[in-house]
Amino acid sequence: MKLIFLLAVLPTIPLAGAQTKSTVSTCKTAFSAALPPNSSLEIDARTVEMEIVGTDQSTLGVSCLLRNQNDGEKIRLSMASSSAVSKLQIRGGPRNNQKIRVEVPRETNLIVHERGGQIEISNVIGNKDVRLGSGDIVILPVNQKSYGVIDTSVRVGDINAPALGVKMEGFLRRFVTPPSPSGYRLLAHVGTGSIHLKATAVPSSSVKAAGNASPAAPGDK
């Protein structure tokens, strides 16, 4: 079935408050907004397959891969930006056959909460708080020197981190590294599903800007 990859740029609309801006659109057009490196970004989404990729750009970009072009206008995207934390919200659209690609500056602190689906984060340096009701979390690269603290847990499922010598499955599983006074913090939790921390990074040459990317079709992974 034909897949349609959609991309465009949005206007920024000032809101009340000196340091707050709002950017809104749908997946009929893709999403672009300023996001300086070392910012904190919170992503609030319902059940969806999401890929979050670090790039050398100083912007946030969102693009959608859909099986039906008409579904694009049903997916609502909004972002509220401030000096403290920016929040991206994704709502609506079909429950299946969609993939959201979010591109952020390589140095970005992430807070990502979803009800279900799959979250893959690659080449993003910073603190991470990733929580998923059901599904899979994949983060790379992760090794012994990547973070000061790594705290992962599943209610039912498995945790795999080969570079850290971790492989566990079952009920109420948790893996925590000894705390370090320096370094980033990685928190990952899944209700039912799996967590994969991989040591191999995606080559920088393969990380393309939004609009030139060719992500896998939903369900092809």
Number of strands: 15
- N-to-C span: 16 Å
Radius of gyration: 17 Å
Extract low-pLDDT stretches: 1-18, 204-221
Strand content: over 45%
The sequence of SSEs as H and E is: EEEEEEEEEEEEEEE
> What spatial form do the alpha-carbon principal axes imply?
globular
Task: Domain count, please report it.
Answer: 2
How many helices?
Answer: 0
Biggest β-sheet: count, sense, barrel? 15 strands, mixed
- What oligomeric arrangement do these chains adopt? single chain
- Helical content, roughly? under 10%
Structural class: mainly beta
Average residue pLDDT: 80
Give a brief rundown of this model.
With 221 residues, the chain is mostly beta strands. It is built from no helices and 15 strands.
Question: What secondary-structure arrangement, pairings included, does this model have?
Answer:
Elements: E1 4-6, E2 13-14, E3 21-26, E4 31-34, E5 39-45, E6 48-55, E7 59-66, E8 75-81, E9 86-92, E10 98-105, E11 108-122, E12 128-140, E13 147-161, E14 166-176, E15 184-197
Structure characterization notes:
By secondary structure, the protein is mainly β. The protein folds into two domains: 1-118, no CATH class; 127-202, no CATH class. Helix content is 0%, strand content 58%. The protein is built from no helices and 15 strands. The chain has a 15-stranded mixed sheet that branches. Strand 2 and strand 3 form a beta hairpin.
Write out key terms for the chains shown.
58% strand, disordered N terminus, 221 residues, disordered C terminus, 15-stranded mixed beta sheet, 0% helix, globular, mainly beta, single chain
